[in-house]
Amino acid sequence: MKTRDKLTNGSPSQRMFQNDNRYKDTQRIAKASQRAAFASPENNSTSSKPAGSLTVYVTILRNLPTKYLRTKQTNPQTARMSSYFRVTLMRSAIGLPRRTNDVLKALGLKKRMATVFHPVSPSVAGQIMKVKELVQVQEVDRRLTKQEVHLERKPDPGYYVEKTSGVEFEENRLA
Hints:
The chain contains nine helices and three strands. By secondary structure, the chain is mainly alpha-helical. The chain has one domain: CATH 3.30.1390.20.
């Protein structure tokens, strides 16, 4: 019982973890994976689980303090708000352990700044949690094509062409 009190009161390392921006990403990923698990076709009326129960995925949430493991019951109709994780590799995996590289390969990330889209699921959320220091994660409603991702990142040229010189010459000559 004493160890549980220590965990809920918060040690200095847990308070640092709470102030870290990755903590917010961890919470967001955990909530999305819970929504996906709750709204998945596995949770139908013929399953052995009671209706409305949520499964806590310990592999996803193992880094969270115990006081953050309490979950709210959600309505299955509103549970599927965003259906894809947009995962971008921000830091290189050179020199990291083989398992970390294997997780990145499984996610389909090879080069730095590469972006992939994966449906929200507990297994993908677990993979993201393994490499959360290397990637940036966003929840999106739909997959973008490679061309859309490229155009999104491409900067404006800094100028625009109002009219070509031939059209402008014809307008001035006729006027």
